[in-house]
Each structure stands twice: as C-alpha cells, then as structure tokens.
Amino acid sequence: MSMPLLGGSGPGGALWEDGGGPTGPVGWIADRSGELVVDLQADGDTVDVVVVGAGFAGLSVLHQLRSRGFSARAFETGSDVGGTWYWNRYPGARCDVPSMEYSLGFSEELQQEWQWTERYAPQDEILRYIEHVADRFDLRRDISFDSRVVSATFGEADGRWTVVVEPVGDNGGEAVTVTAQFVVMATGCLSSANVPDFAGLDSFAGETHHTGQWPHGGVDFTGKRVAVIGTGSSGVQSIPIIAEQADELVVFQRTATYAVPAHNGPLDPEEQAAIKGDYAGLRAANRETVVGFGSRNPGNDTSALEVTAEERLAQFERRWATGGLQFLGAYNDLLLDPAANELIAEFVRDKIRATVDDPAVAELLCPRTVIGCKRLCVDSGYYETFNRPNVRLVDVSGHPIDEITPEGIRVGDVTYEVDVIVFATGFDAMTGALARIDITGRDGQTLGQAWAAGPRTLLGLAVAGFPNLFTVTGPGSPSVLTNMVVSIEHHAEWIADCVTRLREVGQETIEADPSAQEAWVAYVNAVASFTLYPGCNSWYLGANVPGKPRVFMPLIGFAPYAVQCADVAADGYRGFVLGAG
Ligand code: N01
After folding, report:
1. Helices (H), 19-150
2. Which atom of ligand 1 is nearest to the CA of 196?
3. Is 224 in contact with 371 (CB distance < 8 Å)?
4. Atom number in ligand 1 closest to CA 233
5. Which of 180, 227, 316, 552 has its CB 3.0 to 4.6 Å from that of 528, i.e. a possible disulfide?
6. Would the CB of 557 count as within 6 Å of ligand 1?
7. DSSP collapsed to 3 states, 75-113
8. Cβ distance 46 to 70 under 8 Å?
C-alpha cells in the first residue's frame, strides 16, 4: 500500500525502533593490496543500503549514511577508491575548479588539515586526497573493491532490492547476491568510456589507450609516433604533455574547442590561509551560485551588449588574465544571447590567432560553435602546442576518420602512421554507467525501457517505477554544470536525510510520482530552452554517442535547485509517493 507523505510530522522516536540497525559486513572486502580481509562467504546478506561506486559520490553517501546509523556496503569496480580520479590518469589530468573549492566540506577538520599545493590540483593529488578521506573516516571497511554490480532488481513482494555483484580482475570468487532496502547509484556522470566504433580498430598493431581508462603505470611516449583523437577537456589537457614526450604527435580534431588559460601554479599560502579562516563561509557562498563555485570571483551581472566595446574588451582581458571557467562570468547574457556569445567567442578566436604561428592552423583551431555550449576547456599551453615542429593538426570535421589500419589512421587517401593511439573521445555521459547495470523496477520494467526516449527523473534523484533507488547527480540535476563535489555532497545529504526521515515516520518505500516526474522533466527542458546550451552537438545532449536520444540532461542552476530540493523535503517529500511496505 502506498500513500503520499504529507507534512513533516510522524511517529518520530529513535531511529532504530524498527530494528533496522546496522547489520554485519557482507561480501568480500579487499584491503588496498587486494588481500582479502573478510571472508567471502557472505552471499545472501542484507544491508540497509547498497551504494554503487566509491568515488567522491560513493564515499560521501557512505559517510552520510553511516553517520546516521544505516548499514551500507559500497561496491566498486576499481581496485581502490577514487572513481573518475582513479581511472583518468592520463598526462595532464587535473581539476578545472580551484582545488580549495573542488573538495569536500562536510568536515571542518578535514578541510583545515588538507593542504592543496596547486591552484588546480593534478590527478594524483586529488586521488591522494580521496584516499585520505577514505582512511580518515574509515570508509574502506564497508567497500568491496574489484566488484562490479551487474544487476539490481526490485522485489514487489518484500520491497527489497536484490543486487548481484561480480568479481573483477584478480578478485576471483563467485558472484554474490546482496539484499538491500535502498540502492544508491553513485556511478559518476563521466565514467563510461566512449570509444567510437572505428572500422578496423582491432587491426591496429600498436597500443591504444582511452584517457578515461589509463594504465596505472603510465604510458611512455618517448620516441613514439602518437595520435590523439578528440579535443575536449581530456585532449586539451593531455596533448601539450604528450607533445613534449613523443617524437611526433598527430591531433585529429572533429570540432575545434574553446580553451581558457588555467594560469595554474603553486597555491599562495596566504590565499589558502584566508580561505581556511572562513572555509564554511566560502562553502555557503558557493552554494548560492549557479555553478557551485567561484563566489570569490562572481559573475558580472551586466549585459555584454550594454557596455562599450572598450569596456567589454577590458572585462574580457581581465577574466582571461585571471583564467579558468569564470571567464564566462564576464557578462550575464553570454549563454543567453547569441550576439553576446559571439562577442566573447571572437575574443577567444583572436587569442588563438595571436598564439598560433601558422595562420591556416590557427583558423582550423578557431571554433565556430557557441562558446560554452560544449563544456569550456581550461588549458595549459594547448594552442601553443601547435607551434611545435613535431605536432600536426588533422581536421576531420569535413571528412571523418575512415578507418584504423594496422599502421595507423586513414583519412581519405592519407594514412597517418603511428605507434600509439590515444582516444580522448569522451564518455557516454550521465546515463552510460547506469545503462551498463541491469536495473529492474516495478512490473519488471527496466531502466533501459523507462529511459528509451532519454532519461526521466524527479530532481535527478529518483525515477518513477524504481522505489528506493537514488541516483547521485543523476540526469535532471545540475551535476555536470556545476562543481561536481558540491553537487555530490548536496545529494549525499539529501538522500541520507530522506531515508532517515522515512524511518522516522515508519515508511518503507519512496518513489517518484509519475506526474511530478513529468513536470520536472518539462521544467528541466524549459530552463535549458532559455539558454544557448541545446544549440550544439554536446555530450550534455547525448549527441556524442550515435543512437543516444537527444535530450538535454543536466539542469541549469545549482542555487535554485538546492532550494527546490529543500522545499520538497520540508513539504513531506512533495512529488514522491511513500509506502508502508
Ligand atoms: O570528452 P569530450 P572529454 N571522430 O566528449 C571527439 C570532463 N573532464 O573526455 O566535439 C573524431 O568533451 C569529439 O569531437 P566532437 C568535462 O566535463 C573534465 O574530453 O564530438 N573525433 C571531442 O573533441 C568534459 O567536458 C576535465 O566533434 C571524435 C572529443 O572526442 C568531460 O569530462 C578533464 C569522435 C571528446 O570530447 C568529457 O571530456 C577531462 C570521432 N568518431 C574531462 N568521437 C577537467 O578539466 C568523439 N570525438 C576537470
């Protein structure tokens, strides 16, 4: 039986009145060396919550749930924590949100004790930070590594999820089945690598690597002829460093990209101390922004079309000199008005022309798309790299890559012979990782069926027909248009508060009401339609994966979204249906 939960009152009382307190560990637990530290004979065990993934999202959810007394077990395909930062080890990988803001805010001690060394932390430092978080809050004891969740099935009879987990790699052992009241998908928005289905791919005689599945030992490009396919953020970060190592580098560009300088460097100790003097204040101010960071360098609330050309140029130059994603905060209509957008786009093209020596190469590097419509890149020497004698740009916008041959890459009648191909070709974003898991909700409906025409959620947190299943930074939430760590923490707290409240009021299930979900999807689309975002072939729209439904997946605007989430909860989870089991 289901009923809408109205108002904030309920039976209340101690959390564990219903006997739903922590249960024992389940499945296998491997320590960091991969050694098994708990027996494998836990097939069939039960926990309150299964968490899928152990990146920033999985760890945040695990911590929030445990601190509220829930038993939880996280399953992670990788051999350690880190998620995105565990897999994306390509040269040059680093965050493009300032490190001091690209970090967790739930613990004052944690944020005071951790020392970032650079304005934009490199991958290995972020990974060390995530490992530190796991150790400091003793999270590993509830994580099974080398463990891939292959299916999750909701049982109508008992209101429980049955989750099947298979061992990966050296883990060995059999698949285990775990039963849980709740499942939290902390599977990441950009975790499902996309390697285009190039003809002849398997015939290539050299090495191939995708930036999102980079070998742990690194790749030595010394003396090699290298191809990089793709010029999004991963390509822009890796190309300058690969160019320094390789004998020859050929970059295959389908769409030219806008990149703003990072001006990365050591973090100023005074700046760090000033932030730590009121870290809570910075976190709170960031939550009031559209993107969850950057409150120290706020957007300019003026139209680019209402100022003189001189003022505009000065503003663009100031922001260019500061660097980073806040460049697009120069005026308030840059992502709303095509004329305003073209002004800042042309400013960047002029920077490219001034940087790249060969005018023909410079023109090829000048993007013609709306700036910001695909995610803006933040670079360190990207355009300069094309002045190197060992670097060549191949434009495949008009004529695609025909095939991969044993020797290299053929475009038309030219074969570019290489020893290594780097696929910087991105991800099946936002839905790809979920699609790889066989998720079945009520009435035998799979998530694949429910999302056949594109993802549909309520708040990006829940899907109608899939009770007690939560998606962290799911489609329909601001997620990838924000500082991911802020969005992740926000969802982790919302979910933990939600399941706690459910227990307090003696309810067993919560699920999105179909009509509320439809209204939310319409709202997400309506917000996007007021902007220039839907106007180009971005991964926000799923346009990078052939056959994927073209739907603008993220919601624009963190601050108003956070208010909506809080209101929904305060209003007794308005738009959700609660059931007694
Ligand atoms: O992937 P992308 P990414 N033939 O999808 C090209 C985050 N991130 O890994 O634009 C030829 O952006 C494709 O061309 P086109 C960040 O959110 C953050 O770089 O589709 N080319 C494009 O150039 C980012 O947005 C950081 O025409 C093909 C490229 O491959 C997101 O992850 C660092 C092709 C893919 O670019 C994804 O970035 C890295 C084909 N068949 C990533 N198929 C930070 O800085 C695809 N391409 C924090």
Report:
1. 56-67, 84-87, 108-113, 123-136
2. 41
3. no
4. 19
5. 552
6. no
7. ECCCCCCCCHHHHCCCCCCECCCCCCCCCCCCCHHHHHH
8. no
**Of 333, 403, 398, 400, the residue nearest 370 (C-alpha):** 333
419/242 Cα distance (integer angstroms): 13
Q: How far apart are CA 571 and CA 3, in angstroms?
A: 14
Task: Tell me the two tokens of residue 1.
Answer: 């039986």
Is 252 near ligand 1, meaning CB less than 6 Å away?
A: yes
Condensed to tens digits (0 to 9), the pLDDT of residues 169-192 reads 766 678 999 999 999 999 999 999
424 lines ligand 1 (CB under 6 A): yes
Instruction: Indicate if ligand 1 lies below 6 Å from the C-beta of 255.
Output: yes
Q: Which amino acid is at 535?
A: G
Q: Which residues contact 259 (CB under 8 A, 6 or more apart)?
A: 236, 376, 377, 378, 379, 382, 383
3-state secondary structure of 291: coil
Lowest mean pLDDT among 39-43, 202-206, 301-305: 39-43
Q: Where are the beta strands (DSSP E) in 396-486?
A: 403-404, 408-411, 414-417, 420-423, 438-440, 469-471
- Please indicate, yes or no, whether the overall pTM of this predicted structure exceeds 0.90: yes
Which amino acid is it at 385?
T
CB atoms within 10 A of CB 277: 9
Q: Judge contact between 558 and 291, C-beta under 8 A.
A: yes
Distance, CA of 479 to CA of 456 (rounded, Å): 15
Spell out the SS3 assignment of 202-259. HHCCCEEEEHHHCCCCCCCCECCEEEEECCCHHHHHHHHHHHHHECEEEEEECCCCCE
- Termini Cα distance of the chain: 7
Query: pLDDT digit string (tens) for 17-59?
Result: 222 222 233 333 333 333 333 332 356 789 999 999 999 999 9
DSSP 8-state assignment for residue 362: H
Measured distance CA(107)–CA(94) in Å, rounded = 23
Ligand 1 mutation pick, 544, 545, 550, max ligand atoms within 8 A of CB? 544
- C-alpha 447/C-alpha 198 separation (Å) is 28
CA distance 60 to 312: 41
Check pocket membership of 394 for ligand 1, CB cut-off 6 A.
Answer: no
Give the containing element (helix H, strand E) for 310.
helix 309-322
Residue 572 has pLDDT above 80, yes or no: yes
DSSP H or E run through 164? strand 160-167
396 Cβ below 6 A of ligand 1: yes
Give the whole-angstrom CA distance, residue 48 versus residue 265. 44
Residues 6 or more apart whose Cβ sits within 8 Å of residue 428: 192, 193, 194, 435, 545, 548
Cβ–Cβ < 8 Å for 554, 539:
no
Q: What is the pLDDT of residues 505-527, one digit of tens each?
A: 999 999 999 999 999 999 999 99
